[in-house]
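Example 9 (inverse folding). The structure is encoded as follows.
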C-alpha cells in the first residue's frame, strides 16, 4: 500500500460524493477511492464544502467564539461534565471539563436544554442549520464507504435516526460546539505537558487516547490542533492546512463494529499548547453521526456482501450496551497483519479500490451457514420464483418482515393472492429471502428445491436473530477490541 499511497490526507469535494440514481460517475468512483484510501492510511480525510456551506460554517465558528467568551471564568458545579456513559444520548446545553481545559455546548434535536441559573441564555447561533448540513454530509460519507464495501444502498438506515425525526423522538446524533483553552477559562491547573515530539513542545489533554463511539465524525475548527494516529502508528496533524470551506472526517467505533473491523476508528487528541496567549482559544464544530439507542450493531450487511466476519463480530450488540462499555484501544491499532483496504493503480494513474476479503485470513472462521443460505435463496428466487412470476405476469412486491408475520395468518392480507399464485411456502413471510430468518430460509429452499438441506453441510447450528439477540442480552459479551 505504500507504493500507491497518498502523500497526504485525501481531499474530496462534497459535490462529487453525493450519490445519484443510475451508474456511478467517474468523479464519484474517484472520490470514493480517495476517501477510503485516506481513511485506510490516515484514519481521516478532508471534505471540501461548497462556498455557501463554507460561509455557514465560518459564521457558526464566529458565533461560538462570542458565546464562550461571555461565559464565566470558572463553571459552576452543576456545569461540570461527569462523563457518565449512561448519558451518552442525553447530553444537551453547556458543559465544562476543567481537566481537559474544554467547554462544550451540545445541540441535540428533541431535547430542550435547561435554563441557566443566571437566567435566560442564548445558545450559539445557527445550530439547527449546521446540524442539518453536517448530518446530511455524514450520511453521504457513510453511503460512500458502503459503496466501496459493496454493501446495499443505505445499509445502515435501520440503526440511524429518522429523517426528519418523528414527534417525540430525540436525536441520537449530536452537534458539539467546543472551545479549548480560552484565556479567561480558569481550568488550566490540571493540564499537563508532554516532553518532546518532533522537536517541539506539545501539550495534550490528560486523556491522550480518545476514540469517538460514533459511526462518522465531522470536525471544523478555527485553528489547527487535531492529531490522528495513522496506520503506521504516527501522530499526524490533520487540520494544519484546512481551507475555509474544508472539514475533517473520521470514522468511529460504531462503524468499526458494524463493518466487522474493516474500517478502523480514528484515535485522536487535541494540541492546546499554542493557545495560551489567544483570547478565544480554539473553537470547533464537531458532529457525531450516532446509531439509535434502541437498535443493535450487527454485521449482517457485511456477510450479505460476502465479507468474512471474525468471531468477535458474530453476535449483534445492543447499541446502548456498546456505548456504555469500555473499549481498550491497545489491540485495536496493532493489527498490522490485517490490512482493511488495498488499492491498485490503473494504467491511467487513477486509484482502483480493491477490498481484501477476510475469509482468506487464517484468523477468520469459516463463513456461517447463513451466508450460504442467503446466496442459495437468492439463486432460487431468481431461477424459480421470478420465472413463475414472469410467466403469470405477476410483479413481485415483497412485504415488510414484521408486517407480513401477521399477513401469513390472515386470508385477506395484501399479499395473500400473490403468495397463493406463486406457490409461496406456507408459514413463510412474503419478503425477500435476504431478509428472512435462517430457519425460514430453509423452508423457502425446501419448497422450491426439495431435498436441498440434505445435500448441504449443515453441521453448524443456525440461530434465529431473535434468539441471538436474547442470548447477547443474557450473557456478558466482551469484544476483543
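The amino acid assigned to each position is listed next.
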Amino acid at each position: 500500500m505504500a507504493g500507491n499511497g497518498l502523500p497526504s490526507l485525501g481531499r474530496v469535494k462534497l459535490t462529487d460524493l453525493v450519490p445519484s440514481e443510475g451508474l456511478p460517475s467517474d468523479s464519484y468512483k474517484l472520490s470514493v477511492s480517495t476517501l477510503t484510501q485516506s481513511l485506510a492510511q490516515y484514519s481521516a480525510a478532508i471534505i471540501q464544502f461548497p462556498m455557501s456551506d463554507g460561509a455557514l460554517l465560518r459564521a457558526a465558528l464566529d458565533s461560538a467564539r462570542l458565546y464562550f467568551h461571555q461565559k464565566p471564568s470558572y463553571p459552576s458545579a452543576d456545569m461540570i461534565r461527569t462523563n457518565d456513559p449512561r448519558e451518552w444520548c442525553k447530553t444537551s446545553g453547556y458543559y465544562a471539563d476543567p481537566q481537559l481545559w474544554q467547554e462544550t455546548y451540545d445541540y441535540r434535536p428533541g431535547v430542550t436544554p435547561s435554563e441557566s441559573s443566571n437566567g435566560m441564555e442564548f445558545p450559539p447561533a445557527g445550530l439547527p442549520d449546521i446540524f442539518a448540513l453536517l448530518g446530511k454530509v455524514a450520511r453521504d460519507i457513510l453511503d460512500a464507504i458502503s459503496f466501496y464495501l459493496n454493501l446495499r444502498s443505505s445499509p445502515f438506515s435501520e440503526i440511524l435516526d429518522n429523517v426528519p425525526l418523528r414527534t417525540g423522538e430525540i436525536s441520537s446524533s449530536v452537534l458539539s460546539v467546543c472551545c479549548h483553552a480560552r484565556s479567561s477559562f480558569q481550568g488550566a491547573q490540571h493540564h499537563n505537558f508532554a516532553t518532546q515530539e518532533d522537536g517541539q513542545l506539545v501539550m495534550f489533554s490528560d486523556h491522550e487516547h480518545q476514540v469517538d463511539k460514533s459511526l462518522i465524525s465531522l470536525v471544523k475548527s478555527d485553528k489547527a490542533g487535531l492529531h490522528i494516529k495513522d496506520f503506521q502508528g504516527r501522530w499526524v496533524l490533520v487540520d494544519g492546512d484546512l481551507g475555509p470551506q474544508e472539514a475533517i472526517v473520521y470514522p468511529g467505533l460504531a462503524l468499526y463494529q458494524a463493518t466487522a473491523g474493516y474500517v478502523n476508528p480514528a484515535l485522536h487528541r487535541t494540541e492546546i499548547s499554542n493557545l495560551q496567549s489567544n483570547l478565544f482559544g480554539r473553537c470547533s464544530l464537531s458532529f457525531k453521526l450516532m446509531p439509535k439507542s434502541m437498535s443493535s450493531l450487527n454485521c449482517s450487511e457485511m456477510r450479505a456482501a460476502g465479507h468474512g466476519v471474525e468471531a468477535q463480530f458474530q453476535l449483534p450488540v445492543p447499541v446502548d450496551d456498546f456505548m456504555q462499555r469500555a473499549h481498550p484501544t491497545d489491540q485495536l491499532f496493532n493489527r498490522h497483519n490485517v490490512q482493511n483496504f488495498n488499492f491498485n493503480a490503473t494504467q491511467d494513474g487513477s486509484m482502483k479500490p480493491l477490498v481484501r476479503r477476510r475469509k482468506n485470513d487464517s484468523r477468520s472462521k469459516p463463513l456461517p451457514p447463513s451466508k450460504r443460505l442467503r446466496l442459495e435463496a437468492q439463486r432460487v428466487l431468481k431461477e424459480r420464483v421470478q420465472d413463475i412470476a414472469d410467466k403469470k405476469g405477476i410483479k413481485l412486491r415483497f412485504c415488510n418482515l414484521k408486517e407480513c408475520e401477521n399477513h401469513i395468518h390472515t386470508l385477506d392480507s395484501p399479499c395473500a393472492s400473490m403468495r397463493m399464485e406463486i406457490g409461496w411456502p406456507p408459514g413463510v413471510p412474503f419478503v425477500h429471502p435476504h431478509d428472512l430468518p435462517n430457519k425460514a430460509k430453509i423452508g423457502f429452499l425446501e419448497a422450491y428445491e426439495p431435498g436441498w438441506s440434505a445435500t448441504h453441510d449443515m453441521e453448524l447450528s443456525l440461530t434465529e436473530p431473535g434468539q441471538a439477540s436474547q442470548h447477547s442480552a443474557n450473557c456478558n459479551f466482551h469484544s476483543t477490541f
